[in-house]
Design brief:
40% of the residues lie in helices and 15% in strands. It has 307 residues and is of the alpha/beta class. The chain has 2 domains: 28 residues; 241 residues, 3-Layer(aba) Sandwich (Rossmann fold), CATH 3.40.50. It has an 8-stranded mixed sheet, with helices on both faces. Helix 4 packs across helix 5. The longest helix has 27 residues.
Length: 307
Amino acid sequence: MPRHEPTDDNAAQPTSPPVRRRVKRVLITLATLYVAVCLLMMALERWLVYFPPATAHWSLSPHSGDEEAWFESSDGTRLNGVLLRQPGSSRAILYCHGNGEDVPHALSRMDELRRRLDANVFVFDFRGYGGSDGSPQEAGIIEDGLAAQRWLAERLQCKPTDIVVMGRSLGGGIAVAVAAQQGARGLVLQNTFNRLDEVAAGQYPWLPVRWLIRNHYPSNEWIAGYTGPLLQSHGTTDEIVPYESGQALFDACPSADKQFFTIDGGYHNEAEPAEYDALLSEWFDRIYADKPEAAPAAGEERAPITP
C-alpha cells in the first residue's frame, strides 16, 4: 500500500498567481494615486501659500498728508502701497503684511502704529496682492520688498539703513530678506517662521514637501547676514507657525542686540498684548536714540542701492 505523509493544515500555502496580481494592482493604484496627489499639491502650491483677500474699498483723506504710492519692482512689476506720514518725525517703518491681508486690511493697524511710535509708516502690496500687478512667488516678492524699501528711502530722503523693517508671518520672511540685503535701522518680526518649507512639512507630514515646494523662504539662512537690532515675538499656541520655529529663527540671528517676546497662549492671528506694545515703543525709542539719524545735506545725491 502507498504511504501517505501527514499534512499540516496550518502550513503556509504559496500565494497563487491571481492573488499576487491583485496585490500588485492595488499597490500600483495606491502609488499612482499618491503621485497624483503630490502633483496636485504642487499645482495648488500658490493657492496654499498665498491668500490675497478680496480687495476692499478704501480712500485716503485729501487733507491728511498721506499718499498712495505706485512704484516698480526690479523686473518692472507695478506695485501699490500707502505712505502714512507722521508730521515732524523722521522715523520710518516699512511694513510687510502677512499672506492673508493687503494694504486696505492693514491700514487701520498701521495708522495706530504710526501714532503710537511717532513714525512714518509705509505698507505695500507685493505682487498679486491688492492693487499690485503680477503673481506671487518667492523670488519676485523678495525683490518687491527691496524695491519698497528703496522707494521709501528716496521718498523720505534717508538711507535704507535708517528704516525699521517690520513683518508679520509671511511678511516676516520678506522683512528678514530686506534687512539682510539692504540693511535696516532695526528688524521687527511677529509670528515668523524659521523656514516656510519646514512649516509646510509639519502641516502635511504625509507628503515629501521639501522636495515638492518651490517657495522655501529660508529665513534662517537670510537672517545670518543681519547683525542689527532685532525684536521678535511669537505665541506659544500658534497653530500655523509653531513657536519652536520662531525660536529657531531667533537663534539663527547673529545679532548681539536681540530680544524675544513670548506671548503665552497666543495664537497666530491674535493681536499682540499691551505688554508687547509697551516693549515695542521702548525698543523703538532706544534704537533711534542710540544712533540719531542724520538729515541729508541740501542737494546730496544718494548712491543707488542694489540687492
